[in-house]
Design brief:
The complex is a heterodimer.
Chain A: H1 2-20, E1 34-36, E2 42-45, E3 54-59, E4 64-68, E5 72-77, E6 84-85, E7 91-95, E8 101-103, H2 109-114, E9 121-124, H3 134-142, E10 146-147, H4 156-161, E11 166-169, H5 177-185, E12 190-192, H6 201-205, H7 208-215, H8 218-236, E13 243-250, E14 256-259, H9 264-271, E15 274-276, E16 289-292, H10 294-301, E17 306-309, H11 311-314, H12 320-326, H13 334-337, E18 341-344, H14 355-366, E19 379-381
Parallel strand pairs in A: 1-6, 5-7, 8-9, 8-11, 9-10, 11-12, 13-15, 13-17, 17-18
Antiparallel strand pairs in A: 2-3, 3-4, 4-5, 13-14, 14-16, 18-19
Helix pairs in contact in A: 7-8, 8-14
Chain B: H1 3-29, H2 37-46, H3 52-84, H4 96-113, H5 120-144, H6 148-171, H7 175-186, H8 194-213, H9 215-222, H10 225-230, H11 235-257, H12 263-275, H13 280-304, H14 313-336
Helix pairs in contact in B: 1-13, 3-8, 3-11, 3-12, 3-13, 4-5, 4-6, 4-7, 5-6, 5-11, 8-11, 12-13, 12-14, 13-14
């Protein structure tokens, strides 16, 4: 029996060793046979007014070098050109046209929509039900766009078979680095978009210029950015209304999630003419939110003039009763008693290009300048 | 050995090897991209063709990982069930997964909160270090504890402590961290690379061989501590070696694929019911094979049932594993009546 067992064990081990000793072929990668990298000259830098998380430098030959903070450097190679020879190892070439993109960073879809380039996204990390952007939903339903698994469990086979030329991931991918590494092994460059790390709300919107560079639509991106920011910049010059605003949601554990004082949401409230109720919330880490006890929230926000419920995680509220079901303590709040509680639309987090319109919405609420039909773009009032 | 037993042995191993062979082929053939069998064979033998990367870089490393890690889990479960003489002892009873999750959460939340990205190998090392940390505590208890029950309680308590600290850490984490820790807790063989396979082979194969070489003292231990001592087994050293082996095996699984439930508990029971024996000489290779077959089957279901959405591997192993444990418990009760 001992001999038999040894035989079986040896057979299994040999089989396993045979397989594990295999070496894999590498994924698709284009050769670098363009001009010498060192011979290219720097022509200009993309002007950015608010965004700080990326920079773009234009080089001769139509090449554009994108540098994204803590993510890496990418060289956009114009259509018909080859990647320069001698390109530094830390620079990843991206070959235009980028028209077979795998997108898991949901907030980026809005930039593609604005640039009328949704057709460039072949694979989505969100299925049709998960999109609030109608064009993306329709593309998935018609088969022009395919669902290729969410960011944490991508369908590598489909991504490879569809000849994906770029994966655009959110910073969630930092938690699963093996996915990024596997994509790169398959020859799919991975861009981690950091628009959510922009401290200035208009900095988030300015990421449209990044997508403009990727898609060869830099001029359109500049125009769109200028259009969207024009109204907001007028608003930001107006005097402070002196009204205080709390922006929050209550999670399943009953604690209150609020934005830190230096986050982009308090900046938007300021630009709209209000004051964020928590002026000194900062725990010294990179997180943008804080979970606080209901007691602390009660103490800090009870006298806020305006409450805005953030529906991104917890879902939209329609009535005051729904809010009070979250916590009866809220009934003591001045804004609740005055019926001045608003809720963001669930589509907001997918539409960074709408941040300017959200600022306008907040401004109108603060001035009590609500349209007759009560319709704002991203805010709706909770009904009594 | 009686002729009937020998026939059972041959049939049992032949069946497992056949199942392993069939499942390996099935896994190579199944996926969201349809590749004809002739093309797969061509890719396997010549490494040429349009879908070479899918077969060699996506499917094969995953299959080999499921094979190694499934085998490791089942073997770890068998060792602990033997050691504790407890049918529901599993690889994670000693707090291995909780320790791994604790250090992983500290690494993720600590580094990412400071804006520092961590590579996949860093996370694997963190999970392995956490698992080893738990094991260190269990070893310390094993040196003091004279009764097995105390060791189990010690392991469970360490698990609770680690979970409590993890929850404490998570309290200060943002939603991204919480969601991703939850994903990790569900386990997955997705994204395995050949480098991962190389490392896990270097851990699992020596552990498997060493466990097999321990068959004789394990066999003596199954007849009771006193008998084993009389046979010359140093019980204290034996305990430490057994804990070390089972912990290293389950730590390896946790580090690479997250905690995968029920395989370590259910597979040794299935193997016992096939071979009708407790002999380590048979159980060690059979459990390894059985674990590999079980995980290959579950992973096949996890990645193809709702493709391209992938189910967590623990959801599938639990669906198949939990009924096995219940059946075994009922059968055992019936035998005792």
């Amino acid at each position: 029996m001992r001999r038999f067992s040894v035989l079986i064990l040896t057979a299994v081990l040999l089989f396993a060793l045979l397989l594990s000793s295999c070496t894999a072929p590498s994924g698709n990668r284009k050769d670098s046979d363009g001009p010498e990298w060192s011979s290219l000259t720097e022509e200009s830098k993309l002007k950015l007014r608010y965004a700080t998380q990326f920079q773009v430098t234009a080089y001769s030959g139509g090449y554009q070098l994108i540098d994204i903070n803590t993510t890496g450097k990418f060289l956009v190679v114009p259509e018909g050109s080859s990647a320069p020879a001698g390109l530094p190892e830390d620079v990843v070439p991206l070959y235009q046209p980028l028209d077979r993109i795998y997108l898991t960073a949901t907030s980026a879809m809005d930039f593609f929509r604005a640039l009328q380039s949704i057709k460039n996204i072949r694979l989505s990390g969100t299925n049709a039900d998960g999109w609030y952007i109608q064009e993306a939903k329709e593309a998935l339903e018609s088969g022009d766009m395919l669902f290729a698994g969410k960011y944490s469990a991508p369908d590598y086979e489909l991504i490879y078979a569809e000849k994906c030329d770029l994966a655009i991931e959110s910073t969630m991918i930092y938690h699963s680095p093996e996915i990024k590494e596997q994509m790169e092994k398959l020859g799919v460059p991975v861009v981690i978009e950091r628009s959510s790390y922009e401290e200035h709300p208009l900095g988030r919107m300015e990421w449209i210029k990044f997508y403009g560079v990727l898609l060869g639509k830099a001029e359109e991106a500049q125009k769109l950015f200028d259009q969207e920011t024009a109204d907001v910049e007028v608003l930001s010059g107006q005097p402070d209304t002196g009204k205080t605003v709390a922006f929050f949601y209550i999670n399943a554990a009953g604690t209150v999630n609020v934005r830190k004082s230096q986050d982009y949401v308090p900046r938007m409230i300021e630009m709209a003419g209000g004051r964020y109720i928590f002026s000194d919330l900062d725990s010294g880490n990179a997180l943008s939110t804080v979970n606080m006890t209901m007691e602390a929230f009660y103490d800090g926000a009870k006298n806020a003039n305006l409450l805005i419920y953030n529906s991104t995680i917890d879902g939209e509220l329609q009535t005051m009763d729904e809010l009070l079901n979250k916590s009866r303590l809220l009934s003591d709040f001045q804004a609740v008693q005055n019926g001045n509680v608003w809720c963001t639309g669930k589509n907001l987090f997918q539409e960074p290009m709408g941040l300017g319109r959200l600022i306008s919405d907040i401004h109108r609420v603060l001035l009590d300048d609500i349209p007759e039909d009560g319709a704002l773009t991203y805010l709706h009032k909770l009904k009594n | 050995m009686k002729k009937r037993g020998l026939v059972r042995l041959w049939i049992g191993f032949a069946g497992l090897l056949l199942a392993l062979f069939v499942l390996v082929l099935w896994n190579i053939n199944a996926g969201s991209v349809h590749i004809p069998v002739w093309e797969i064979l061509k890719i396997l033998f010549t490494r040429t063709g349009e879908n070479t990367v899918i077969v060699w870089n996506v499917r094969l490393p995953r299959i080999i990982s499921a094979l190694f890690l499934g085998g490791a889990l089942a073997l770890s479960g068998f060792l602990l069930q033997t050691f504790f003489q407890n049918p529901i002892a599993g690889p994670f009873i000693l707090g291995i997964s909780s320790g791994a999750k604790l250090v992983l959460s500290l690494t993720l939340i600590g580094f990412l909160s400071a804006g520092i990205a961590v590579g996949s190998f860093g996370l694997i090392l963190a999970a392995f270090a956490g698992a080893m940390l738990s094991m260190g505590f269990v070893l310390a208890i094993s040196l003091k504890a004279k009764r097995m029950s105390l060791l189990i309680i010690g392991g469970v308590m360490i698990g609770y402590i680690c979970s409590a600290i993890t929850d404490f850490v998570v309290t200060f984490a943002d939603d991204q961290n919480i969601i991703n820790l939850h994903h990790w807790s569900l386990g997955s063989f997705s994204g395995m690379s050949w480098e991962n396979v190389g490392v896990m082979a270097a851990v699992v194969i020596p552990a498997l061989i060493f466990t097999f070489l321990l068959s004789k003292p394990i066999s003596a231990y199954q007849l009771g501590e006193v008998y084993a001592r009389n046979m010359g087994v140093n019980i204290r050293v034996f305990r430490i070696v057994l804990i070390l082996l089972s912990s290293v095996l389950s730590a390896c699984v946790t580090a690479f694929a997250g905690p995968i439930s029920f395989v370590g508990v259910a597979v040794p029971h299935l193997i016992r019911s096939i071979f009708k024996t407790e002999k380590p000489l048979i159980m060690v290779p059979a459990c390894f094979l059985g674990g590999a077959v079980f995980c290959l089957l579950c992973d096949l279901i996890a990645r193809t049932a709702f493709s391209p959405t992938e189910l967590s591997i623990s959801s599938v192993t639990a669906v198949f594993g939990a009924p096995v444990v219940i059946l075994v418990m009922l059968r055992r009760q019936k035998e005792h009546l």
